[in-house]
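Severity: low
Component: inverse-folding endpoint
Summary: output formatting inconsistent between runs
Steps to reproduce: submit the following structure tokens with default settings.
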């Protein structure tokens, strides 16, 4: 797990002005960056006795990738898993979780907020009260989620001649953001962090009036609650992208670099394309690409789906 490749994106971002490298997290065993957080949280809980193989059941909320990462680990460590998802989770993702032996529950939008995350978290808390020996890793508040990404940033720095000038990453639980930013601060690196959020998300503050009414359909970044892991000042800049921006970013990455990437990767690419005119000559940028696109063939890479959503 980890040691994922860092590849130059020279076709999409010609290096005559600045250079961009993509950190391809799809090459983790479970297919996404969430493998890192899942392993960190589960192995810590095993080491403290909070989880007991053959006895404990993990209960967690996920939009997809963490659920797969947990399903793989729980299968390996002989732990039960109940994963609470919502209708945005792709059919492929739920099928993979079930193949590993997980129980998958699908919830609808929270009636008060119109969002899925509050409904998922409410169901998690209900399960914790009723399922014997249940354990909630709580990816939104677990410090071991963030700690896993000290290693992610270290890998990036070790793969380059010097620390990058910019790091672009998607923000959801903010575990990746916090872990990478903490490593940058601890090492005194000059890297500027750009967090990519979704239009309508509340992570970095209430949505602007023009964002209200925007319902996100592409999972992986953004949130309807402020994650407890978030700390002030982790990102120098926040960029918000729409679902259509994600689709365009994914398809640009595929067309120019032959990289089939997931929705949050498209969000990061879209943010980089938007920022290109403001990045100084000779700069080195790293874009963390959280997962692959093979689980989005019926959505992002389906012309019929895109036409039905965006016209």
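Observed output (run 2 of 3):
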């Amino acid at each position: 797990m980890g040691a994922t490749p860092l590849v130059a994106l020279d076709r999409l971002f010609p290096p005559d002005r600045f250079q961009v490298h993509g950190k391809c997290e799809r090459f983790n065993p479970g297919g996404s960056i969430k493998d890192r957080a899942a392993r960190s949280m589960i192995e810590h809980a095993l080491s403290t006795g909070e989880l007991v193989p053959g006895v404990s059941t993990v209960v967690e909320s996920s939009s997809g990738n963490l659920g797969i990462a947990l399903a793989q680990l729980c299968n390996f460590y002989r732990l039960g898993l109940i994963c609470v998802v919502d209708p945005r989770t792709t059919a492929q993702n739920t099928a993979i979780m079930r193949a590993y032996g997980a129980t998958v529950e699908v919830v609808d939008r929270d009636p008060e907020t119109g969002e899925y995350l509050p409904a998922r978290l409410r169901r998690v808390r209900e399960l914790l009260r009723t399922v014997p020996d249940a354990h909630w890793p709580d990816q939104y508040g677990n410090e071991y989620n963030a700690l896993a990404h000290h290693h992610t940033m270290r890998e990036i720095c070790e793969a380059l001649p010097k620390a990058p000038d910019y790091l672009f990453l998607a923000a959801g639980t903010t575990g990746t953001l916090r872990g990478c930013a903490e490593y940058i601060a601890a090492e005194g690196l000059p890297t500027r962090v750009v967090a990519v959020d979704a239009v309508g998300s509340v992570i970095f503050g209430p949505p602007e009036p023009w964002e209200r009414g925007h319902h996100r359909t592409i999972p992986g970044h953004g949130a309807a609650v402020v994650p407890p892991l978030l700390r002030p000042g982790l990102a120098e800049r926040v960029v918000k992208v729409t679902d259509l921006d994600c689709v365009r970013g994914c398809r640009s990455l595929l067309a120019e670099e032959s990289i089939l990437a997931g929705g949050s990767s498209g969000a990061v690419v879209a943010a980089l394309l938007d920022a290109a005119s403001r990045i100084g000559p000779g700069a080195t940028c790293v874009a963390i690409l959280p997962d692959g696109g093979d689980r989005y063939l019926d959505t992002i890479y389906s012309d019929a789906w895109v036409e039905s959503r965006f016209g």
